[in-house]
Write a structure and sequence with these properties.
CATH class of the largest domain: Mainly Alpha
Strand content: under 5%
Order of helices and strands: HHHHHHHHHHH
CATH superfamily of the largest domain: MetI-like
CATH topology of the largest domain: MetI-like fold
Largest sheet: none
């Protein structure tokens, strides 16, 4: 017995060391595979001050258009978040293993959500733009699908972490599936759902800005146009607006998370 007890810590240490060595080797193999030209990067680093100086000027004449399109990006993110959140809310209860009333439906929903998450957002929006054309509608559809892929998985994990004793107790009283969901899960999972929504809001708005660069509307379109025209003052102005917005959003969301935890 004592011999076995002494072996357990040794095995744990060996496993930890082996894991560290594995990731170091994986990193070195990745660097070799990519054939990173570090020497060329260092040689060109001397051009950085010159390039950086080009972005020091601001184009105040674009502020009005920038703020207007930034509001478009924010509203795109909010619309995609709300629609995606509502759909994810319903799908999560249908797919969570501990509450799903159909195993086949649960597998189908989880598989579909995994497929959505597997497709990069930019590729997804390009497919939607090709189908619906450029504009805000394509942006909302793309962000909605992206939110569904993110939130459904998060909501399912939250539901499946709940105590099974609650479900069994309600079932023993003859409660229906809907009654179990409403009385057994809602009080426990809603705070966690709101926390996930607040986390997703930040990434949804960030995605709306990125997706705008491929035709989904918003400030991303202005930024993309300025990049193509090498209009550095306009690029700096758009980046500054985005930074201020995301900074203020992060502060507001952090306060919201603290209140949800309280």
């Amino acid at each position: 017995m004592e011999h076995n007890i002494q072996l357990v810590p040794a095995r744990e240490r060996l496993f930890k060391v082996g894991t560290i060595v594995f990731f170091i080797m994986l990193f070195l193999i990745s660097v070799h595979f990519l054939e990173l030209d570090v020497e060329r990067f260092v040689a060109r680093a001397e051009n950085f001050p010159e390039v950086f100086s080009r972005f020091m000027a601001l184009n105040v004449t674009t502020l009005h258009a920038g703020i207007e399109q930034l509001l478009v990006s924010i509203t795109l993110g909010i619309c995609g978040l709300v629609i995606g959140g509502v759909v994810s809310f319903a799908l999560a209860f249908l797919a969570a293993d501990n509450i799903a009333f159909s195993r086949a439906l649960s597998i189908f929903i989880k598989g579909t959500v995994s497929l959505i998450r597997a497709i990069p957002s930019l590729v997804l929006i390009l497919m939607i733009v090709a189908s619906l054309g450029m504009g805000n509608t394509a942006g909302v559809v793309g962000l909605t699908l992206s939110s569904i892929g993110y939130l459904t998985k998060a909501f399912i994990s939250t539901i499946e972490e709940q105590d099974d004793a609650i479900i069994e107790t309600l079932r023993s009283t003859g409660a229906s599936w809907l009654q179990i969901v409403v009385h057994g899960f809602f009080p426990n999972v809603i705070p966690a759902f709101l926390a996930w929504l607040s986390i997703r809001m930040e990434s949804s708005i960030a995605e709306s800005i990125s997706l705008g660069m491929v035709g989904a509307g918003g400030i991303g379109m202005l930024l993309s146009r300025a990049i193509r025209q090498h209009d550095h003052p306009t690029i700096s102005t758009m980046i500054l607006l985005i930074f201020i917005t995301m900074f203020l959003l992060e502060i507001g969301l952090n306060q919201m998370k603290q209140k949800l935890r309280a």
